[in-house]
Structure formats: structure tokens, C-alpha cells
């Protein structure tokens, strides 16, 4: 009986597949087009049905990864392939960790909208999340995957993260250390021993970072090599973790070796571009000194820059060390391969949706047909940054061949103009209402135009200004302004109406000069009970006056950005001579200096150190009005004190109160450290210490300081500074201020 049934089944099957294929249909297929699906088959319409070929086709379709299931039905010669497509992931979210962080979504999750649902893909993303959290020093993290089917058939995937516990390094020890101080290692390593009140700024919190753990021994070795220990060996740290308390003890085994001194410095050029003796002038390492790996790298980079400035864009400088272990000396060798001279074939500008191409090109020191120069390239990048028109500026070098390259200038426009209709609050001026239109790059032309009306409890001003930093794309600049203001000081107010015009010239990449003329009429208003006639000869301070004067100035600026420089310094000096057919007659000098240094290469994150100094002197040539003298206090001089409140004084004959009359000379300086707070919001935190001096006959008559912290924010309406300060060396009668803010100023 069994043999009979088997024979009957085989007969039926052979009859079924002996028939010809009349048609091939597809049902439920979306991701593969029908013509492509037909080409993937090993049979076509008219062929005889073949069970093995149909089975192979099913497997081939399934391997494409688009389907949860594939099956076939055959009826009267019509072959129909049925597909059950995988659902599409329409939304991916993170909950409990790095929520709304696009960088994490791209680099860790790696699942885009529109991706086909696949359990393996989700599990791999889950593993990457746990690995990323563990790199932050947290263990026992748990990630759950929540899937929600939406009405349109797509899937919303949510990764619910429960972060594990942080491992705290309770003890960190070193063995084999004799030549260096182990405390110096804290300056270079990321994983440090927990200190008392480690949460406080400047203290070590002891949190373990696994991503840095593998590099800390290399950082220690690099520090040793800065002191000549070329044979230093630092093993990976031995770590003992207490999983009950999530603490760890770490230890390093170190073999220092001997200090190597430099026996010889050799420069080997495959083709002499610059004489070796001329290059050695720029080498900071010297024979007889202990070797220093930091100077070694800097010297190699300096040599590369010198050669590249001769148009050898593809120069290679390969440093080498020839150690003599017997006498512990080392020969320092720089192998230099200049290659060929390189010419700029083309300069391509992209990303400037608003700023005209010519505004950008006039800031570039390299153009089509020019010979390559590395210094010119760096200066071009910095020059674009100083405009303040762009959030990001990069210049990529695209190699065409050994003798030519293209420069690709990639820009990201920043908001340079705004319409202001709103208000604010300042510690000195109180409530502020401002209406204005200002654009530093109107219509992308590089021209600065501003119309503004402003009123607060202590100020009222109206102004119009226009300036062009590059008249007709030349090295000349021009400006014009007209203004009217009312400004209340602590004991009196000054009304001013004026006009100014000027012309400037760019003498070099970093040096500019300016010559201007200004005229203003000024009148005083006084508080109740204050009569300047009571002050005898001093009443001249408070007489209405006119001012007509010429200003000449010069400025050096090689910083890399207008609002937030990270390298370079600026130095400016101006002289204003009044007394040209008007009442006021004096000579005023203003000196400003700023030094900026990015610390990322030293400490691993985008911190910026700043030092700023300001010195002002006024010399009496006949008459110095009170409003033209100098005052300190507030942002720009000494934070922690009210604006304009620090000044020499004279007693009020009626009340005995001290009246501020301004100083003839001031000096103030500031130390600042700016650090990222919320990078995506372009928000930073800054700590600072200010100190200043003011007097009539000497700088040291009045001395005050201030310290505090603040927020630096590139807001949608422009750069904003919010400063919280406390006074230093406060004296009786001083007017202090704990909060101030400004908009539009350079940080």
C-alpha cells in the first residue's frame, strides 16, 4: 500500500511540474521592482515548472533582507510569489541617556528613519549603547528595547536605558618612579585618584573613563620623554574593581631608564630647498640638552612650515632618533622630502548662502595661479574667522597632481543681522527697551549698517551708523555715524549730539590704521540738591561744552575668530586730540591688549585662556570736561562694581557725600578661562578675575578687583554675556554689582 501511494504522489508531482509556465506574478513586493525580480529568476515564462528552481528563487529573494517571509503558489501554470515585507522603522528614540543627542544617534545607534525592522540590527545597537556607557566608566547598565506598531504599519523603536554605576578610583599608586614627581602625572592622565570634595571645580572626582584608560600609560610615557627618558616603559595599569561598592584601586609599574642628552642634530634634505644652517635657527632643541619630545614635534612642524611656505605643499618631515644606549646620548635626525613645487589651480567656495564670493575671496591670500604657502593658507583661514560672518570655516587641500591642487573653502553662515524689538535688564541701567535694525554684513556685502533706538532707566540713545571695511574691495575702509544720547551717571547726566566720519587702511595682514574726525555738543543735567557752583573752580567740570577732535589709531590683530578667538593676540593704540575750534582741549590715549590661547591640545577639551589689559591716559591741554575723564567698574574693566562707579571723588559742600569726578589714568586687566557648557546650544561658562587701578596723578590711587563666573551664549539674536561677580578689596561707599549682561561684544 505504501509503495502504491508513493507512486501515485510521484505521478501527481511529475504531472504538476511538467506543465509550462503561463505567467509569473508578484504579490506584496515593494522594495524590489518587478523587472529586477524577474531578472533574479533562473527561469521565465514558457519554461517548464521546476521545483528546485522555484526553491532557489525563494531563497534568493529572502537573502535580500527585505522580507519576513516568501512563498509560492502555482495554479494552472501561473506562478505567484507572495512576500511579507519587513516593517519600516519610522522613529527611533533614546530614553534615560543622551536624549536628543544627534551625534549619539548617528555614531552609536546607527539606525536611520526608513530602515527595515530587524531584530539583529536592534540588538547590535543595544550592544553599542552598553559599550558607549561602559567607556564612560559605568558598569551594569541595562538597555531595554520597546517596539510600538503605529497605525500606518511602521514601527517606533525606543531604547530605554538604565545607566549603571560609575567606578570611582579610590587609590592610584606608582612603583619605580624616581626621576619625576608622580603628582605631575595628574596633569596628563584622565583617570585620577579621587580627592576630598572631588565634585568641586579643580578637584579630581575619581571617575573612571575606560576609553582613556588604554591611553593613560602612553600619556605618562610621553611626559617622561619630555624630560629625556627615551627608554621609559609604562605598563598598562593593573586594576582591581570592587563590584560591591563600585570602587577601584589602580597601580602602574614604571621602568624609567636613563636621561638621554642630544649629541647631534642632523637635517637630511633629499633636495635642498633651504640651507640646513638656516633651518637649524628655527630648531629649539640644542646639543648637550636633555631630549624633549614636545620640542622635537614642534621643530618638525616648524621645518615643515618653512619648506611648505616655499610652495612645497606635499613636503614630508620624518623625525628619527638614533640612540646610543652605552653613553645615553641621542642623535636627532629630521629627514626632509620636499617633493615638487605646487601651484593653486582653483579656489572653490561653498556654503556662503548669503555672503558674496568676492567678500570671501578678498580675505584669501591664495588664489588661482598662486604658488602654495602653508602660512598663507593658515592666515586665510584666520582672516575669514575675524570677519565674524561665519560659524565655521575650513579650507581643504584637494590634490590634483604632484604640481597642483585645488583649495575648497567650506563655510557655514552665522547670523550677522537682527531686528530687535524687546527688552532686558541690566544691573546698572535697569529695565532696557530696545528697537533697532543692525547688520554687520548687509545683503552679504560686508558693509555694516545700524539703526537703533534704546531706552532704559538711565540711558536714552538714537543712532545711525554705516561702515565699509573694504571700500571698493581695496585696503581702505570708511565709516560715518550720527547719534544723540542721554546717559545718567551716578550724580549727573550728560546729553550728547554728535557726528563722526573716518577712513582706515590695512597696511598688512595684521596691521590696520585709522584716521577720524568727530564733533559733538554736550550738556549736563544734575540731581536734586547738586549745584556745581558750590565747587568753586571745580564747577568747570560741569559746564556745557562742545568737542571737536581728530583720532588716529593703529591695531595689530592676528586672532583666528571675531567673537571667540582661540589663538593669537590683538593690540591697539589710539590718540584723540580735541580742541580744534571747540571748548574741550585735551589729548587722550587708549591702549588695549588681548591674548587668546586654546587649551584643547593640552587638556583634551575646548577650554580657552584669555588675558586682557586696558590702559587709558588723558592729558590736559586747556580743558577736560568731566564726561571725558575715565571711570571704572562693570564689564570691560572691573566686574563686581557698578558701571562707572570707581573714580576719584570730591566732597559735596552741602551734604558731605563724595562726588565722582573721573580719573586721568586707568589700568585694568583680566584673566579668564572659558569652557564649553552646552556645545550644541553654543553656550559656554567662563570664570574670571579682574583687577584695576584709577587715579588723577598716579595709577595706584584707587585699586579694586572682582571675581566670578558667567555664561557666554551665541544666541539666535547675537552673542550674549551674563556675568555674576563679587568685589575684591571693597571699601566703604563703594557701589557693588552682582550681575551684568551685554549683547554683541567679542568674548
What does this structure look like?
Helix content is 16%, strand content 44%. It is of the alpha+beta class. The protein has six domains: 18-85, Ubiquitin-like (UB roll); 99-162, membrane protein fhac (Ubiquitin-like (UB roll), Roll); 167-255, membrane protein fhac (Ubiquitin-like (UB roll)), CATH 3.10.20.310; 261-337, membrane protein fhac (Ubiquitin-like (UB roll)), CATH 3.10.20; 343-413, Ubiquitin-like (UB roll); 417-743, Beta Barrel (Porin). The protein has a 16-stranded antiparallel sheet with strand order 20-21-22-23-24-25-26-27-28-29-30-33-34-35-36-37, with no helix packed on it. The chain has a four-stranded mixed sheet with strand order 5-4-8-7, with helices on one face. Strands 10, 11, 12 and 13 form a four-stranded mixed sheet that branches. The longest helix is centred in the N-terminal third of the chain and has 17 residues, at 119-135. The model is unreliable at 1-17 and 419-432 (pLDDT under 50).
Amino acid at each position: 500500500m505504501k509503495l502504491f501511494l508513493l507512486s501515485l504522489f510521484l505521478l501527481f508531482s511529475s504531472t504538476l511540474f511538467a506543465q509550462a509556465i503561463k505567467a509569473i506574478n508578484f504579490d506584496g513586493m515593494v522594495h524590489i521592482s518587478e523587472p529586477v525580480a524577474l531578472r533574479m529568476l533562473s527561469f521565465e515564462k514558457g519554461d517548464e515548472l521546476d521545483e528546485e528552481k522555484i526553491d532557489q528563487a525563494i531563497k534568493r529573494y529572502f537573502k535580500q533582507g527585505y522580507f519576513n517571509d516568501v512563498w509560492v503558489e502555482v495554479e494552472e501554470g501561473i506562478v505567484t510569489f507572495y512576500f511579507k515585507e519587513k516593517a519600516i522603522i519610522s522613529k527611533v528614540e533614546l530614553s534615560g541617556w543622551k536624549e536628543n543627542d544627534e551625534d549619539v544617534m548617528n555614531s552609536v545607534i546607527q539606525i536611520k528613519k526608513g530602515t527595515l525592522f530587524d531584530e539583529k540590527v536592534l540588538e547590535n545597537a543595544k550592544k553599542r549603547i552598553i559599550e558607549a556607557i561602559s567607556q564612560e566608566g559605568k558598569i551594569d547598565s541595562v538597555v531595554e528595547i520597546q517596539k510600538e506598531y503605529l497605525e500606518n504599519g511602521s514601527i517606533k523603536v525606543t531604547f530605554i536605558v538604565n545607566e549603571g554605576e560609575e567606578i570611582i578610583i579610590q587609590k592610584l599608586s606608582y612603583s619605580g618612579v624616581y626621576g619625576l614627581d608622580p603628582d605631575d602625572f595628574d596633569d596628563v592622565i584622565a583617570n585620577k585618584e579621587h580627592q576630598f570634595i572631588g565634585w568641586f571645580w579643580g578637584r579630581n572626582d575619581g571617575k573612571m573613563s575606560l576609553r582613556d584608560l588604554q591611553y593613560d600609560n602612553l600619556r605618562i610615557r610621553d611626559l617622561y620623554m619630555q624630560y629625556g627618558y627615551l627608554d621609559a616603559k609604562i605598563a598598562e595599569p593593573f586594576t582591581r574593581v570592587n563590584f560591591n561598592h563600585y570602587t577601584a584601586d589602580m597601580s602602574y609599574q614604571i621602568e624609567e631608564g636613563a636621561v638621554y642628552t642630544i649629541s647631534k642634530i642632523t637635517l637630511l634634505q633629499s633636495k635642498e630647498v633651504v640651507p640646513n644652517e638656516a633651518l637649524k635657527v628655527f630648531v629649539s632643541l640644542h646639543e648637550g640638552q636633555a631630549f624633549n619630545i614636545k620640542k622635537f614635534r614642534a621643530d618638525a612642524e616648524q621645518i615643515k612650515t618653512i619648506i611648505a611656505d616655499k610652495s612645497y605643499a606635499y613636503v614630508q618631515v620624518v623625525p628619527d632618533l638614533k640612540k646610543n644606549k652605552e653613553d645615553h646620548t641621542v642623535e636627532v635626525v629630521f629627514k626632509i622630502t620636499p617633493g615638487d613645487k605646487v601651484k593653486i589651480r582653483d579656489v572653490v567656495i561653498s556654503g556662503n548662502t548669503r555672503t558674496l564670493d568676492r567678500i570671501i575671496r578678498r580675505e584669501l591670500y591664495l588664489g588661482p595661479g598662486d604658488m602654495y604657502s602653508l602660512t598663507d593658507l593658515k592666515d586665510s583661514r584666520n582672516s575669514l574667522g575675524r570677519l565674524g560672518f561665519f560659524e565655521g570655516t575650513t579650507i581643504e587641500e584637494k590634490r590634483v597632481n604632484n604640481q597642483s591642487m585645488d583649495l575648497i573653502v567650506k563655510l557655514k553662515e552665522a547670523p550677522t543681522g537682527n531686528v530687535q524689538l524687546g527688552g532686558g535688564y541690566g544691573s546698572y541701567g535697569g529695565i532696557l527697551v530696545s528697537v533697532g535694525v543692525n547688520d554687520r554684513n548687509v545683503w552679504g556685502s560686508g558693509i555694516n549698517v545700524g539703526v537703533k533706538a534704546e531706552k532704559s532707566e538711565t540711558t536714552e540713545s538714537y543712532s545711525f551708523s554705516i561702515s565699509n571695511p573694504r571700500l571698493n574691495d581695496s585696503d581702505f575702509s570708511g565709516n560715518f555715524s550720527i547719534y544723540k544720547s542721554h546717559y545718567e551717571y551716578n550724580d549727573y547726566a550728560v546729553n550728547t549730539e554728535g557726528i563722526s566720519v573716518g577712513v582706515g587702511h590695512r597696511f598688512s595682514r595684521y596691521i590696520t590704521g585709522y584716521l577720524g574726525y568727530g564733533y559733538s555738543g554736550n550738556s549736563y543735567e544734575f540731581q536734586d540738591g547738586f549745584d556745581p557752583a558750590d565747587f568753586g573752580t571745580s564747577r568747570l567740570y560741569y559746564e556745557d561744552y562742545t568737542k571737536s577732535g581728530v583720532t588716529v589709531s593703529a591695531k595689530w590683530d592676528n586672532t583666528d575668530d571675531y567673537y571667540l578667538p582661540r589663538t593669537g593676540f590683538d593690540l591697539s593704540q589710539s590718540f584723540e586730540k580735541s580742541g580744534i575750534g571747540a571748548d574741550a582741549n585735551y589729548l587722550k590715549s587708549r591702549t588695549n591688549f588681548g591674548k587668546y590661547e586654546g587649551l584643547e591640545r593640552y587638556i583634551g577639551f575646548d577650554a580657552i585662556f584669555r588675558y586682557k589689559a586696558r590702559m587709558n591716559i588723558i592729558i590736559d591741554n586747556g580743558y577736560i570736561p568731566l564726561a571725558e575723564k575715565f571711570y571704572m567698574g562693570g564689564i570691560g574693566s572691573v566686574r563686581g562694581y557698578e558701571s562707572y562707579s570707581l573714580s576719584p571723588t570730591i566732597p559735596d559742600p552741602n551734604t558731605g557725600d563724595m562726588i565722582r569726578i573721573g580719573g586721568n589714568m586707568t589700568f585694568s586687566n583680566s584673566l579668564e578661562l572659558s569652557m564649553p557648557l552646552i556645545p550644541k546650544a553654543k553656550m559656554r561658562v567662563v570664570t574670571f578675575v579682574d583687577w584695576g587701578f584709577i587715579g588723577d596723578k598716579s595709577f595706584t590711587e584707587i585699586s579694586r578687583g572682582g571675581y566670578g563666573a558667567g555664561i557666554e551664549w551665541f544666541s539666535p539674536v547675537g552673542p550674549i554675556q551674563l556675568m555674576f561677580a563679587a568685589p575684591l578689596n571693597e571699601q566703604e561707599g563703594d557701589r557693588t554689582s552682582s550681575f551684568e549682561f551685554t549683547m554683541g561684544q567679542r568674548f
